[in-house]
Amino acid sequence: xxxIFDAIKKSAIRIKWLIENEDASYSQNINATxxxxxxxxxxxxxxxxxxxxxxxxxxxxxxxxxxxxTPIYENGKYLVGYDPLDGSSLLDVNFSVxxxxxxxxxxxxxxxxxxxxxxxxxxVTQMVTAYEDVGMYKLNExxxxxxxxxxELKDSGLINASGGTHTGWxxxxxxxxxxxxxxxxxxxxxxxxxxxxHQILLKGGGxxxxxxxxxxxxxxxxMVFEVFPFAFIFEKAGGEAIDGKRRLxxxxxxxxxxxxxxxxxxxxxxxxxxxxxx
Length: 278
Ligand code: AFP
Description:
The protein has 6 helices and 15 strands. By secondary structure, it is an alpha+beta fold. It folds into 2 domains: about 1-150, 2-Layer Sandwich (Fructose-1,6-Bisphosphatase, Chain A, domain 1), CATH 3.30.540; about 160-275, D-Maltodextrin-Binding Protein, domain 2 (3-Layer(aba) Sandwich).
């Protein structure tokens, strides 16, 4: 696992450089999910592939930016599903973006997830790893990621971040969000999953949701690259992650690019989600 985390650190340093120095415009390419790729999405993906190709414990990788899996070492133990530059449509407005990694054994689902990592490229670059516990690291001037602290969610928090077009929300989702605001929550939604969930983790609690909507009945966020890694991190940090009713880590994707509605949060907020979805 150490060498996988090291490959992620090396990729992060190279991607941070790209973000700060390279052209953030769109390419002509469309990715597997139908999104037009930025040139930086493609370059970040190549960097991560290059770094994982040096690691003999990696059997195979699959990127949000590619339709198919890439075999690495036949005798490797681990499968890695990753989103190289999540939230890249926010680069033009200089918001924080991130890279997300799920490390799996044998299959790309929650039951086979061993570890999860994300990197946030903000005013500073930080990395959060979930393996035995959840730890946050900061990239220093000398190119090292120094341990800052362990992350733990409180039982309840007052941050609310819900995605999806409001006119497409179900009545149940409207009622849930209304109750959350009535309890005193504040809206904190940047449109980047990494900074939005990072904020909830760092401030101790709250709720992030990307529900089923009339335009995206199966949600928008992808299980293997985005949802499972964050579900793993939230559970390890003492929170919960569900699709409205079921634990996200119990879902089995039919295809690596499958999406699901998702709710990540502290225990009290997830209780509320369950109550509104009875
Ligand atoms: P991009 O990578 O296209 O910027 O999408 C980001 C994202 O996948 C995720 O990071 C956000 O939580 C979500 O989309 C935001 O979606 P909405 O704009 O529909 O709220």
